Amino acid sequence: MTDTAAPPVGTAVDLEIDRPQDAREKVDLGAVTVVHPRHWWRWTIAAIIIFVLAQFVWSLFTNDRYMWDSFAEYFFSGPVLIGIGYTLSITAVSAVVGFVLGTIIALGRLSTSTLLSSAAWGYIWFFRSVPLVVQIIVWYNLGYLYPTLGLGTPFTTDFWIVEFPTVQLISAFAAAILGLGLHQAAYSAEIIRGGLISVDQGQQEAAAALGIPASRRLFRIILPQAMRSIIPNATNEVIGLVKGASVVFVIAIPELFYAVQVIYNRNSRVIPLLLVAVVWYTIITTILSIAQFYIERHFARGSVRTLPPTPLQRARRWASAQWTRLGDAPPEAPVASALAASGGGVR
Q1: What is the 3-state secondary structure (H, E, C) of the chain?
Q2: pLDDT 10s digits, 118-154
Q3: How many whole angstroms separate alpha carbon 277 and alpha carbon 305?
Q4: Ramachandran sector of residue 8 (left: φ over 0; alpha: ψ -120 to 50; beta: rest)
Q5: CA 28 → CA 16, 19, 170, 316, 326, distances in Å?
Q6: Would you call 35 exposed, middle or buried from its count of C-beta atoms within 10 A (0-12, 13-18, 19+)?
Q7: Is the dihedral angle over the CA atoms 85, 86, 87, 92 positive or is it negative?
Q8: Which of 15, 173, 2 is CA-nearest to residue 97?
Q9: Is there a contact between 155 and 127 (Cβ–Cβ < 8 Å)?
Q10: Distance between CA 177 and CA 158 in Å, rounded?
Q11: Which pLDDT value is given to residue 116?
């Protein structure tokens, strides 16, 4: 008969024997009380914000001075809709002029030519220095300085090729486009230049080493990568143009703000007409902000593995999470929510 040596004292066997019975049992995590942290300051600030918003909403319905009947009367009125058309057209044309010219100026700033770089810097310096309303008024009154414009003998006023009266050539609408477009080009140039220099220099060096032409390097390699940093600032500038178009009321263009001014000067209903302008500006800004989100999401495809979820995908994920918490979700719900959050799934 073979004797088995006893294990030394302090081994795992002794420890297991000496351990109490309840300690060797598995802990039931479902019986553990979960104590959530209490964010007293966060709750207090949230309560104050909710109270202020509720007080403001209550005043909207109880204060008769808002005159919501007048607001509804003029919200879709003819002069207001015409003013919206002028605002959108001025914004669109000025944005195109500003960003196209701003791209050229940005490339001039990055040029190795001292003359081009200096000229681009001088343009940016001048148009950022002069207030916008002053530029618009100067363009509108350019006929006082130059009664006629044309082509002819250099350094003379002999316009024998073609000649135009300045007042007829630069109308109020043209003065607004020139003022807003040239002013915007100065800011757009710096935005675009900042986006271009944010791209790693190795990208351009690698493309040049492969023999890719400079124009193709710019439009196919550098600019698409720079768009991620250009788009947010560019959208801010376009939204600023929407509101900046209200400045052209000084030259009597019937845009949105000018239209509501004319109406409330006649009927003295200042607040409801200003609310009409506020709501329409808010709607336009909201549409531009939504467009900015999807444009940014499009240009993010080359830099992130998972695209940021859209508002609809966020809503689906939230609804799936709520059903999961209630214990009523089917087993595939978490997978579907994960696919929705990552932008995947069947389209």
Answers
A1: CCCCCCCCCCCHHHHHHHCCHHHHCCCCHHHCCCCCCCCHHHHHHHHHHHHHHHHHHHHHHHCHHHCHHHHHHHHCCHHHHHHHHHHHHHHHHHHHHHHHHHHHHHHHHCCCCHHHHHHHHHHHHHHHHCCHHHHHHHHHCHHHCCCEEEECCCCCCCCCCEEEEHHHHCCHHHHHHHHHHHHHHHHHHHHHHHHHHHCCHHHHHHHHHCCCCHHHHHHHHHHHHHHHHHHHHHHHHHHHHHHHHHHHHHHCCCCHHHHHHHHHHHHCCHHHHHHHHHHHHHHHHHHHHHHHHHHHHHHCCCCCCCCCCCHHHHHHHHHHHHHHHHCCCCCCHHHHHHHHHHCCCCC
A2: 999 999 999 999 999 999 999 999 888 888 888 888 8
A3: 42
A4: beta
A5: 20, 18, 82, 33, 21
A6: exposed
A7: positive
A8: 173
A9: no
A10: 28
A11: 92
Q: Which residue has the tokens 């810097």?
A: 121
Instruction: Report which of 120, 122, 84 is spatially closest to residue 103, judged by C-alpha positions.
Output: 120
Phi and psi based region of residue 233 (left: phi greater than 0; alpha: psi -120 to 50; beta: remaining): alpha
Residue 204 CA to residue 134 CA, distance in Å, equals: 41
pLDDT band, very low/low/confident/very high, at 13 (cuts 50, 70, 90): very low
Q: Which of 108, 255, 113, 86 is nearest to 186 (CA)?
A: 108
Which residues are CB-neighbours of 346 under 8 A, at least 6 positions away? Answer: none
306, burial (CB in 10 Å: exposed 0-12, middle 13-18, buried 19+): exposed
The gap from C-alpha 330 to its chain's centroid, in whole angstroms, comes to 38
Contact of 341 with 321, CB cutoff 8 Å: no
Which among 289, 295, 170, 174 has a CA at the least distance from the CA of 224?
295
Task: Name the residue type at position 115.
Answer: L
Q: Which amino acid is at 110?
A: L
| CA separation for the pair 347, 343 (Å, rounded) | 10
Please state the length of the chain: 347
- Residue 338 — pLDDT band, cuts 50, 70, 90? very low
